[in-house]
Design goal:
single chain; 371 residues; alpha/beta; Rossmann fold; 2 domains; six-stranded parallel beta sheet; six-stranded mixed beta sheet
Length: 371
């Protein structure tokens, strides 16, 4: 059995938090003109500006325990067809190679049954750990219990909050803050008058937090905005049912001029639908992850205008560092924050976003590894 580890609580959207947000909305004072909409737009502009600045530090740990040799890690993406999940497992495999570990990727293609089966395979192969990208702790049970009983280290990237005893740790941005930034950016982009459609994937706890943050930001900053529809889908239907579902919603709400997609793979799936729509030239799209395709849309001025981007490769290296600490019997926090940045055409640098600093060399030096 793995040794018990200390827990630093992940920031969750609690009733108290939401009450505080809504209270702040109702008590916000109007500007000199008495126009609350103008005040909210100004506040939203100030809020998003701090997330558009370049990062200046890698912020990695000052020291590392010895890298444990000869480890086998099974990597499990949400779906290898989803670019961000692919980036995560590919980057982890790259990092593992530098420290002499072996990896084997098993793709569940968005199917929870196949994801649980992948955990079973890891146990049978006597793997040392499993690295998940956007794994859902609830969906993966009871397989996670079996893996923990077998002594496997369990690290999740972008999986969102999870219950005690599921994963050892998760590496991800603060999902609620992520959503606040997207909601504030939509306020700015529509000048506080947006007709906004939300395209949500609630099977992922992290996306549930994004969605909550978006709604809270619109409530706080954009009283002049209207949510035209709030549709839900699942990643297994990303390229099949989602475009049709979105088309029907867009047809029913032709006044929509802004769309929030839960993550970049969904944005890519619905972007052609927007382009074909009669109102397509007036619709803006906002999403998150910072995938190459989506940053390309932003650069080309092709429907998508903003992306809250996380350097997924950097987070994968963070994940390996945490897994090695587990192998060394060190305590690890429940959640390890990863950086993110609001990217628009004005501050777009690399595709995909590289994090602004040389974090890769910093980790290789920390591990005394070679590229």
């Amino acid at each position: 059995m793995p040794l018990p580890r200390s827990r630093a609580p992940l920031a969750l959207l609690t009733v108290a938090t939401l009450t505080a947000v809504l209270s702040a909305c109702s008590s916000s004072s109007a500007g000199p003109s008495g126009d609350f909409s103008a005040t909210g737009l100004q506040e939203a502009t100030t809020f998003v500006a701090k997330y558009q600045a370049n990062l200046t530090s890698a912020g990695i740990p000052a020291s590392s325990p010895p890298v444990q040799p000869g480890r086998l890690i099974i990597t499990v993406p949400c779906s290898y067809a989803a670019e961000n999940c692919k980036r995560g497992v590919d980057a982890f495999a790259e990092a593992a190679k530098t420290v002499g570990w072996k990896t084997k990727m098993i793709d569940p293609a968005g199917d929870p049954d196949k994801a649980r089966a992948a955990v079973g395979t890891a146990i049978r192969l006597k793997a040392d750990g499993i690295f998940f990208v956007a794994g859902s702790g609830d969906q993966l049970q009871p397989a996670l219990n079996d893996a923990r009983a077998a002594g496997l280290a369990l690290v999740d990237l972008d999986g969102g909050p999870f219950k005690e005893g599921q994963f050892d740790t998760t590496v991800e941005p603060d999902g609620y803050e992520y959503g606040l930034v997207m909601g504030a950016q939509m306020t700015v982009a529509t000048k506080g008058k947006g007709k906004i459609m939300l395209v949500n994937d609630p099977e992922f706890p992290s996306v549930v937090q994004y969605h909550a943050g978006v709604l809270a930001a619109l409530k706080k900053y954009c009283p002049g905005c209207e949510v035209t529809d709030d549709i839900s889908y699942q990643i297994a239907g990303l390229s099949t049912s989602l475009p049709t579902q979105f088309q029907a919603a867009l047809t029913a709400h032709p006044n929509t001029d802004m769309v929030w997609a839960a993550y970049d793979a969904a944005a890519s799936a619905i972007l052609p639908v927007i382009q074909r729509s009669t109102n397509g030239g007036k619709i803006q799209l906002v999403s998150s992850d910072g995938n190459a395709a989506n940053l390309g849309y932003i650069k080309a001025g092709q429907v998508q205008t903003a992306d809250v981007a996380a350097p997924t490769e950097w987070a994968a290296y963070q994940s390996l560092d945490q897994m090695n600490r587990i192998f060394n019997k060190q305590d690890v926090p429940l959640s390890v924050p990863s950086p993110f940045k609001l990217i628009t055409k004005d501050n777009l640098t690399t595709i995909p976003w590289d994090g602004d600093v040389d974090w890769r060399s910093a980790y290789l030096k920390l591990w005394q590894a070679k590229a």
